[in-house]
Description:
The complex is a heterodimer of chains A (about 425) and B (about 400). Chain A is of the alpha/beta class. Chain A has 17 helices and 15 strands. In chain A, strands 3-2-1-4-5-6 form a six-stranded parallel β-sheet. In chain A, strands 7-8-9 form a three-stranded antiparallel β-sheet. Chain B has 17 helices and twelve strands. Chain B has helices spanning about 20-30, 65-70, 85-95, 105-110, 115-120, 145-150, 170-195, 205-210, 215-225, 265-275, 290-295, 295-310, 315-320, 335-340, 340-345, 385-395, 400-405; strands spanning about 10-15, 35-40, 75, 95-100, 125-130, 200-205, 240-245, 255-260, 325-330, 350-355, 355-360, 365-370. In chain B, helix 1 (about 20-30) packs across helix 7 (about 170-195) and helix 6 (about 145-150) packs across helix 7 (about 170-195).
Amino acid sequence: MTDDNHNDYGPGLLAPYRVLDLTDGRGLLCGKMLADLGADVVQVEPPGGSPARNVGPFYHDNPGAERSLFWWAWCANKRGITLDIATDDGAALLRRLVANADFLIESGDPGRMASLGLGYPDLQAINPRLVMVSITAFGQDGPYADYRASDIVGMALGGFMHLTGDGDRPPLRVSMPQFYQHGSAAGAAAAMIAHTHRQLTGEGQHVDVSCQQAVARTLAHAPQYWDLEQTILRRMGAYRESAGGTFTRINWPCKDGYVNFQPGGGTAGAARSVRSMLAWMTEEGMGSPELDAVNWEELGYGTARAEIMEMTVAAVAPFFMTHTRNELADGALERRILLFPVATPSDILAHRQLAARDYYDRIEHTDIGETVTYPGHFVKDMQDAKRVGISRRAPHVGEHNREILGGELGLNDRDLARLTELGAI
Amino acid sequence: MSTLPLEGLKVLDFCWVAVGPMTTKYLSEYGATVLRVESAKRPETLRRAGPFAGGQSGINRSGYFANYNANKYGLSIDMGHPKAPELILRIAQWADVITENFTPGTLERWGLGYDELSRVNPRIVLFSASMLGRGGPMQTQPGFGAVLSSLAGYTNIIGWPDRGPVNPYGAYTDFVCPKFAVVAILAAVDRQRATGRGTHLDMSQLETSLHFGGPMLLDADVNGREPELVGNRHPAASPHGAYPCAPDVSGETDRWITIAVFTDEQWAALRDEMAADGVTDAQSGEFRTFRVRKAHEDKLDGIIAGWTANHDRHGLMRRLQAAGVPAGVVNDTRDLFEDAQLQHRNHFTWLDHPEMGPYATDYTESHLSATPGRLDRPAPLLGQDTEHALCEIIGLSEAEYRELEEAGALE
């Protein structure tokens, strides 16, 4: 693919492939992940622009179709066309694009694509190799298939909220959307699984993703605790219930904010981490002989009993209050302690490890004369670090209509004007 | 039975704890041959973590481990043994993909870095995952997803304004990354098959997790915004929260329903449902528009909570959904097993394990129409497949195998 807007990035791993991305705000991340690896992703929006453009936050807090940071973040690296697939002309153009596409991703309510004559069987008839991914809250069928789900509804039904928050208050969600992100990312993984099969056999297929299931898979061992020990783990605020009756403190206040530190036993450096912390406390005259005497090495992961945890909190909490987040993080690195600061976005933007790995991509938005910082490579290709990352801003409404509908499908200016008048593009 | 889409893909898997094994479970569930290397001398963390079948601990009884390692072959190799590197290089010639999530530098110390691996197999895809990635001043920082979620910005935005932040449940970032990892690995496999070229992929759990927070980071960059704790409030919705419901027949009182109102139509529908039960406080003009509801949100939440508290959560969910209001019960972990939709999707699959008996493992969230995933083998007992895998799959002779065994390399 030649494209003037691609800067110094070499061809990505997925450069040979074309993705038609029909998702709204619920599925944008799926195509974005493929685009970050070099796939040619074309976002297909209804005329006037995607409803996702109305989702905040906004540039300078000023709403507008070209100012949604939600849109910028999830549609970077994509090109964009407008197409009203609910019209005959628009659907016909989509079918022509499908003939040469490798993937089609959509996040409409179950049944919507089929009602437009664009269900998987319809598209398969045009292109049997097509991998079509449908991302919905609960899957294409079943008792909740037609339920309306926003982020909080999905995080509740997926089991996340019951386990998050203070025990004496209502369950909590993460106050930025997660639900559809989990399903979108799972959809990308499944798209690649179906792709691997297609490359060998020529057979395309339909991938039906449930965001509820994707969230239910984020709960570590909690569902298994019910299955095997009939224990319902519960939310405990700064603590985590690590088994029935045992818990560990994770979040701790310090001098200028909070840090996470997970005291406990077991391998993966957990016991060593606690020993190092205790040694550090002793060096500064705040040691605890009782904690030194605990056999951390023999405790299993997450199995410290309540009395050990109480003793730990009594000794460690005052120590943290004598240090800042940065002091604790620096000390943790030096001493191999399992500790991280509770970071704010500005901490994250300035983080030295991310800077050292050249993580952020700075993309010019010439229309507003500003350079914007984007999260960069989600994985690094060690042979060519520049192969994964962000190389272009999200498209404006209909920005690539001429390039794709004209250049590729051969529509001339008169066709484009007619279709615009009909409301098809 | 249908073929599996990753049949023929050969994976040498050093991953441990959660993020890595969940990644390779996607591969094994869809048909890849995954040889999972462990050490009997130093059993991995999850084998010693609960829950345990019947509440009885044991190296082969952890449900945490068993969930993520279904369909894999279990090998025991003592990586500290002088014969181990040569054996691994032999397996590397068989493999298409090698996965690992040790602290950066560990493979290299064993003489098994990408250079050595690609020398014996130039096509190899090596997938390395770590907390903070390779290189940089903090590459050796140890950690778990349970604490990394803080550096990734999650903890900072979960909590009540009058209290401190709290962590998202569990090793949250461990469950964000596997989906990205599968995409990256299979993209590298695609190129391997097309061109014969190998790849070394390096995933930083921090960097990957930050992709879920893209809009928040942009907001900080262009608007200088530092988010505050808001409980369950939402900038574009009101009401928006989790509201108490009536205890259920078992007497369980920790019962909640979430309600999210984004449009005037949804508000009108919710208000009418409340009015039908005689709760008319919400009809007041102070709640008519989004703007005024936002201004009186504490009062509004109180009225709604007073109404929901008298209702069974499932009945209320069905009723609100029928009226067009986004609403969903807060499922606890037992509820997940009884959830009608999750049952419809076969979310939990039971595998029969020789020591544990039947145990629940999560089935994939993505249903593939032509080649659905399949979980049909329980997680391996520690070292259960060492001989089979080395002799039948890798092709070691009986004599070679015995020599390794007697030398103590397979412990």
